[in-house]
Amino acid sequence: MKIKTNPDNNREVYARRLIEASLDPFVTINADGKITDVNEAMIKVTGASRGKLINTDFSSYFTVPKKAQDIYIQVFKKGFVVDFPLTIKHKNGSLTEVSYNASVYKDDAGQVQGIFAAARDVTDQKWAMELRKANKELAFQNDEKEKRAAELSIANEELAFQNVVKEKRAAELIIANEELAFQNNEKEKRAAELVIANEELVFQTQVKEKRAAELVIANKELAFQNNEKEKRAAELIIANEELVFQTQVKEKRAVELTVANEELAYQKNEKEIRDAANKELEAFNYEEKLASQYTLSLIEASLDPLVTINTEGKITDMNEALANITGLTREELTDTDFLDYFTEPQKAREVYQEVFAKGSVANSPLTLRHKDGKLTDVLFNGSVYKDDGGNVQGVVIVARDVTEQKRIATELTEAIVFAEMATVIAEEAKSKAEKATLIAEDAVKAKQQFLSNMSHEIRTPMNAIIGFTKVVLKTDLTARQKEYLQAIKLSGDALIVLINDILDLAKVDAGKMTFEQIPFKMSFSISAMLHLFETKIQEKNLKLVKEYDNTIPKYLLGDPVRLHQIILNLVSNAVKFTTKGKITVSVRMLDEDDEKVTIEFAVSDTGIGIPAAKLDRIFENFQQASSGTSRLYGGTGLGLAIVKQLVETQGGTIQVKSKIKEGSTFSFTLSFRKTKAKPELESEIVELNTEITDVKVLVVEDIALNQLLMKTLLDDFGFDCDIADNGKIAIEKMQAKTYDVILMDLQMPEMNGFEATDYIRNQMKSDIPIIALTADVTTVDLAKCKAVGMNDYIAKPVDERVLYSKMVGLVKKTSSTTVSDEMESDEQVAKDGQKDKCIDLTYLIRRTKSNPVLMMEMISLYLKQTPPLVVAMKKGFKKKDWDSLYAAVHKLIPSFSIMGISADFEAMARKVQECASTRQPSEELPELVVQLENICLQACAELEVEFNAIKNKKR
Length: 955
Description:
CATH class of the domain at 514-674: Alpha Beta
Radius of gyration: 48 Å
CATH superfamily of the domain at 514-674: Histidine kinase-like ATPase, C-terminal domain
Distance between the termini: 157 Å
């Protein structure tokens, strides 16, 4: 009996070729999660052969196996899954990002046989998304850089302006006893912002360069992917040939079954043989039908459009992906011309004709048109399919959507150009930032120089003035003598407060300002402070009104000195700008609880008032209501800026209300903790510890006046005192005598305080307490004091109570062996201080109040000291005796500002001093020494003329 071949056989061959023609990996999985079949694309993406893939765990080919298990479990439950993200792992380690679409396939009875899954390579899409993000980030960063560059330019101009103002006000600030503090107008903050901006700019430039490199790599990757696609097209052709071979094998099997059936008919009962043959044939037909359904499922699961056309160019079949991309139904597409759905019909015709002519075609570019006009760029891969006799029946074409790839390539080109432009912009911005940074650094250096000079020049004479005033006040005096001496002491204390306030503001900027929490009596503090203005109030015929809330607790914890400073500034301004009427100082309690009180302080006047447009700016540095205000009333415009800093740093707030010609009211709030402790009253007489006697002190100091003061103070303490002019002499005295404590000046000739302390600690192995003494509290290297082994630190002018307390504490070994907290808190200020001062002979006239005798003494002293110092400087340079060079220049520097020598030469002198200190002479050192010699000798010549002129005028 002859059995015919299943009529669906050709359909199965055709479907199988469609599957193998796909560029996407296809796989079937049974209920156990084992792979039952794959296409060539799956083999390619995993690197494993078909034989090794079959019957292995589907999940084992992914970076996250558990996630892969979830996909087929979900499909068995729901029947399908769409766009499930996974990462396929090739055996060589390379990774491919894919999106899976999967569904179950069933037999005729509707029983689930397994899962068919198709993977779409989405690596390019993910890269495209990352590229878009990178481009957006790049654009944002460039916008930020442009803004930052503009801010840098503005900051640069502002910085230059503030430097000019600061130079004009510097001399006035030193002398002005009315202004109690100084602030650098946030220049340090601006400088820090400029440095940060510069670092940020460099970082962004590096990021852009990195992005540009990544874009180049992406371009190479895109080229690689195109090459891979060409390889896959070739693999499709091979797969088609494999499909033909398998079909021939099946045909042979069918023939063998037929022969077997005939053979059985001769050997057994004909009916039984026929029944058996029919059953076998039915089973074979069922297997063929199941395979056909499986193949169709594979075709429909493909995300790429698939289409078959006959020899006349008519569409005979397609999958759902083609229907979606054209916007038409299967019925509308069937039997229509293939070329009707492209923007270039003639080119589409040439594509399928080439397939018929050559048997296959790979990566032919065309553009599909949706019915609503939307265009999709595709690459076509196609091959012919034949019947059992080898006759060509039609063409199978697979289209790959490359719209996104083309867009990426375009964006890549644009991004490379954009990155090149951004690099140029970044370089320009970087150059501007570097210039701005240099300006900011110069400003910082200028401020450091100012604070150093001011502190040193004022504290050195004030040490003797205040010290001896205190000594004399302890003696028997008449009432008038005591009044005069107290006035001298009060003025000296006020001047020291001025210096300390300026340093305190530097601490505020550096975040190092500290506030005391000590008991004080609020009512007494307010009354004592207002008492200072009585004379001025009477001179201007004004009325001073004090309104005090008596519900305020008698004793509070806080910082009365800072409170005085705030109110003093506000009342001083009120007196200055009021010509008639009254000034009211109000103190009232706003809130109270078990632990603290909140108090409002207000200062009102009936003065000139402030324009509304200026109210927002009066708390800024160097700001007054108008330019005329400074001319009429004087002042630097720093007072209110200082007040705002002190109030807000303590957690308070300050406000102002004002009307032109009616007056102003400044109010601020501060909180104070309650206390039952009473404030301690200071005494001019130091209370001596009777347990501490027979203390031997070595004072190492090179200034004769300071030597006398220290000896006087120590005699009052009942201590034995020896004097050494420098560190070398001090060491000699220590080798001959035992001391309990050393008071060590830092800047001395021959051997300074640092060198002497280092020798005492490391060579003599002595742990004797050493207290550092210096008038230069801003530039002293506090870290170095600590490093060489000094135990503590006292700033000049010396407070005898502090001196006695620290000496006794060290002798009793009850205090720390390291530099005090005051040193550490001042260390940042020493680094942050700055000033640049340029004055002329007017300074000397002011300081001497035009006293000809005093001016002649000062000039005579300069003429006597300078020539030997110049000789010592030249000799030290010639012999490379760096210590002698340093000492000579160190003594020259203070006279520059006093005698009106340009600050430029002072800067030169400090460069020479730095070279001598580091023992590393620069190329410009010889020229600097010559210029200093010339300017000093020229100054001597000019001052001789001035001396004679003053002398003749005096006659």
